[in-house]
Amino acid sequence: MSRRNGTAIAELPEDLTIEVRARAQFSPYDPGVSSGPVEACYPPEGGEFEDGEVELVIGKRVLVTLRWDDARELFGADFLDKLETQAWENSDIQEPDYDRLHDQARDDRLTGDAL
Questions:
Q1: How far apart are CA 78 and CA 21, in angstroms?
Q2: What SS3 class is residue 2?
Q3: What is the enclosing helix (H) or strand (E) of 58?
Q4: Is the pTM of this model over 0.70?
Q5: Which ranges of 1-115 would DSSP assign to H, the alpha helix?
Q6: CB of 69 closer than 8 Å to CB of 82
């Protein structure tokens, strides 16, 4: 008896949600210094997207994990750009607390500890 191959297409139930999760890696980030003596100032560096992956998830089950470039082909550049932005915003890279830095610089000037 020979094998039979077939395909089928069915719509997913309306209450089924497929979640798209992104994990991205960014280069080390240095926020730079934009105040104080000119010779001590420098622009922000790093924080560029390096690599990532996208998971399609139903409930707690990961259906598939895609390389970033494959996901870009599947979903399109605009969608992946949004995921990259969200991943950056949710990353552990934090902007500096400028108020605290300003207060510290003022205190250093008052105490003579400034550069």
A1: 15
A2: coil
A3: strand 49-58
A4: no
A5: 68-75, 77-89, 98-111
A6: no
